[in-house]
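## Example record

The block below lists the input lines for one assembly entry, exactly as stored, with component labels intact.
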Amino acid sequence: MGVISKVPVFLEKTPGGGILLTQMDKVLNWSRSSSLWYLLFGTACCAIEMMCTGASRYDFDRLGMIFRASPRQADLMFVAGTITYKMADRVKILYEQMSEPRYVLAMGGCAVRGGPFYYDSYSVLKGIDLVIPVDVYIPGCPPRPESLMEGCIKVMEKVKKEKLADWSSDSAK
Amino acid sequence: MLSDQLLTQLLEKFGDKTQKLELKPVQAAVLVQAQSLIELVAYIKEDENYAIDYLSSVSAVDYLEDGMEMVYHFSSTSKHHGLTIKVKLDRAKPEIPTIIEHFPAANWFEREAWELYGINIVGHPELKTLLLSENWDKGWPMRRDWDDEDFVRFPEF
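Predicted structure tokens for the full assembly:
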């Protein structure tokens, strides 16, 4: 439904039809933000909430978001849950396997700053941003599906601000 | 729980290598010396009065100045009784023989005791980290005097 609602803004009426005058940035960013496929990956109870958001009641599909089981096909990674030091290495590998441009959303207290395991824990990483760059943080333990969706909308806003000229092989972020 | 009769028999058979522990009514428990552990485990597994065939858990406890302890929980699926075996260890040099030979289920439990408490499991085939990351080099985290720069203690109120 995105095309029908957004295209008339760019449409130039000419006799016998219309032409579309736009910028490459806008088209690419629009298509990317409207099909933000996320990596199906969760490590703790936040993953349950993420599944709930993906299911029919809250329905990620209406934002154009579909889960992908392979990092190669994913644009967005939810770090949903507690990350231990052992898991952190694996998360980093998953992140490196994603193709650019890639976005990371830290979901819940554990991914943001260790959450309830900040104190007295020898095994829990104190925030996923120590390992991979994070675009959007969502607090909560776990966050409600509404806040997860708002976080995704924030990611979309960020995608829409991307400039084609900024992309190069070594500075995608 | 092992009947009083069987427990007494066991204690008599192993004499001064073992000692009865008062954990009643929770569990029949025996304290055994580290060098007699294998012998005891083999005996309760083979003897048909005991018929111990199931190892539920192996864990370690750190009592600081009172040393360390390994705790084995056994039970029998045919006789419906259980037995706890404890072994006292020297905290400066904790060492205990593996019981994988008799109970293969002990493999991962013993690995865990090794990586978290630093208890050297003599004869274990693959003593490497199980729950901690592969490149863990910060010592034995479940020991009560363990500390690390990334480790944040809960503040006291």
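Chain A has one domain: 37-162. The mean pLDDT of chain A is 85.
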